[in-house]
Amino acid sequence: MDDGAALEALFAQLPVTADWTIGFLTAVCTGPGVIAPTAWIPEIMPEGAFDEDATARAKVDLLARLFGAVTETLRTNPEIICPEPEKPAQEAVDFCRGYVRGARMHETWRDDAIATKKLLPFAALAKEDVEAIDEHGSPIADTEAWTATLRASLGSYVAGLHAYWQSKRQVVNTTPKVGRNAPCPCGSGRKHKKCCLAKQA
After folding, report:
1. Could you report the per-residue pLDDT of 76-92, keeping only the tens digit for each?
2. How far apart are CA 169 and CA 150, in angstroms?
């Protein structure tokens, strides 16, 4: 995306950072369902997001292009979307805070025990009140080293959750449902329940 200067100017006017926004959009794109722009844009741009003036439209258009760039990065190389481990720690904190907020917009994500557990490293890095325990449920003594390990693995956590939800998404069947008493779509002239539906049973 070649809008670096425009994005920098935009984030100078917004209450959230670029890292928060990319984390937020990453989770919005990753999750199990589609969240409409009318729901996610106000999270980034709470004031005047859908005003009719040209300035507001330009900002929304820029955010839509950023959303597209995040979607493409997740499709091709999800590990690289988060701040690198050598970047300032605050960038990872902001990214994870945005990611957690975006994840919580997905009701299905909130109700999925496995996906909720996979979100814990993000919550810990976002400095939420998360219990420092290992995969066996034992308390972690050296929380600083634990946080550093989580930070180094952030890209793999992003990729893992993206893969998890990709595997859960169902292909939408565009064929209309045929009622039991409707004519069978095979063209036999018989009722569906007496023809192909009976063969499926």
Report:
1. 999 999 999 899 999 99
2. 27
Note the pTM of the prediction, 2 decimals: 0.79
* Residue of 27, 132, 133 lying closest to 71 (CA atoms): 27
Give the whole-angstrom CA distance, residue 189 versus residue 34.
39
Query: CATH number of 4-168: 3.40.920.10, 1.10.10.10, 3.30.1360.20, 1.20.120.740?
Result: 1.20.120.740
* CB contact set of 59 (below 8 Å; sequence gap of 6+): 10, 45, 49
H/E run at residue 57: helix 54-76
Q: What share of the chain is helix, strand, coil (3-state, %, to 5)?
A: 60, 0, 40
